[in-house]
Amino acid sequence: MTDQSYAIFERQQRDRGIDLETVKDKLKTLKVETPSWGYGDSGTRFKVFQQDGVPRDPFEKIEDAAQVNKYTGMSPSVAIHIPWDKVDNYGELKQHALDHGVDIGAVNPNTFQDDDYKLGSITNSDSAIRRKATDHLLECVDIAKTVGSKALSLWFADGTNYPGQADIRRRKHWMHECLSEMYQAMDDDMRMLIEYKFFEPAFYHTDLADWGMAYNMAQKLGERAEVLVDTGHHPQATNVEHIVAYLMDEHRLGGFHFNSRKYADDDLIAAAHHPYELFLIFYQIVSAQTDTNPAVRNNAENISYMLDQCHNLEPKIPAMIRSLINVQTQYAKALLINLDEVSEAQEKHDVLAAEHAVRKGFECDVTPLLEVVREEMGVPADPMAAYLKSGYGDKILARGKGGASW
Ligand code: AFD
Ligand code: MN
Ligand code: MN
Q1: In sequence order, what are the beta bridge partners of 304?
Q2: Beta carbon of 197 within 6 Å of any ligand 1 atom
Q3: How far is the CA of 401 from the centre of ligand 3 (A)?
Q4: Cα of 356 from ligand 1 centre, angstroms
Q5: How far apart are CA 28 and CA 45, in angstroms?
Q6: Which residues crowd ion ligand 2, with CB under 5 Å?
Q7: What is the residue with the minimal CA distance to atom 3 of ligand 1?
């Protein structure tokens, strides 16, 4: 980057009425958590291809996640998944994270891989199985307390494959019962992020299939329960940004799992397939940050951003770096929308001008801006190149194959 290209960019944005200092400040505060499981081996139901150098335990996953933060300055926390990241001493895991410049983020329970959960976990008609699943949720609350995490992130595979297989209404009540118990166990400053997904592994009905069901559950539980939007968990053609706007207006948007999907829950690199969708999600967030209602503004400022990705073919650390750069890029573009221009066009009912005012942000080349922001943050202007040059990727090859997998 030359000083000249930033100078040109700055002039262009000033002419468009954009306050670049505010844009830069906002970009510097964008933090996106990475998932521990995204560093382990993963695959499809057909095959998991093992990669050389994959972390062998939760400590190594944190070391790899720390590399991503080191080069981007954007991912200072790592989500953990229990029991995948089960360790004897969580205090030690926390200290290990801090020693590497990161912290432990959301704690994710796992109620989908035990044989007992074949027909459901917290919605199973067998009360002993519901008890077991609830105890696991409570264990995760305890782990969160031990590591100082403020977020419990919940996703349930619970559902059925055939009509009549189970009583959908009773399952709804059981879920509420179990989650209430968990909610009561949480500290006052903890949030419960409730994730929904329309299908898979259940193919007929899923107990929390969409944002409306997750929202209703959150409403019933209390204000520290919020909805988590995983961008890959909707039927084709769903308007995800509409869901985002709606939830912020209800002050219930807890967080995101960013990833890309083309067909189902593909968990690919964020914004690799639909960058414009991610841009429009950020447009809604940036717009809600200026809402006249302080509660809406507060929600828009306190969203927990996370990646939920599995890198089956590509090397994992650079894939995370790429994802974060993509997220940062779309946020930057959304910050370059002149919201006054959009409002004026809306007032005049000028459909074309309104759409154009939004799209103009997307069409800006934000490369000079991001390079300056990174320099000011004290990270490399080109995080990917710097990581690839660092030799870390070669160094970890000594771990060999057969590392942790989900
Ligand atoms: C599964 C789900 C969901 C969840 C993740 C971690 O599809 O995205 O966030 O597991 O529990 O991939
Ligand atoms: Mn997810
Ligand atoms: Mn998913």
Answers
A1: 255
A2: yes
A3: 25
A4: 36
A5: 39
A6: 230, 257, 308
A7: 155
Sign of the torsion angle spanned by Cα atoms 22, 28, 29, 33: positive
C-alpha of residue 234 to centroid of ligand 3, in Å:
10
Residues whose CB falls within 8 Å of the CB of residue 355, separated by 6 or more in sequence, listed in order: none
The DSSP H or E segment spanning 305 is strand 304-307
Closest CA to 265 of 194, 199, 182: 199
The pTM score is: 0.97
Q: pLDDT 10s digit of each residue in the chain, 406 long?
A: 567 899 999 999 999 999 999 999 999 999 999 999 999 999 999 999 999 999 999 999 999 999 999 999 999 999 999 999 999 999 999 999 999 999 999 999 999 999 999 999 999 999 999 999 999 999 999 999 999 999 999 999 999 999 999 999 999 999 999 999 999 999 999 999 999 999 999 999 999 999 999 999 999 999 999 999 999 999 999 999 999 999 999 999 999 999 999 999 999 999 999 999 999 999 999 999 999 999 999 999 999 999 999 999 999 999 999 999 999 999 999 999 999 999 999 999 999 999 999 999 999 999 999 999 999 999 999 999 999 999 999 999 999 998 877 6
Whether residue 371 has its Cβ less than 6 Å from ligand 1:
no
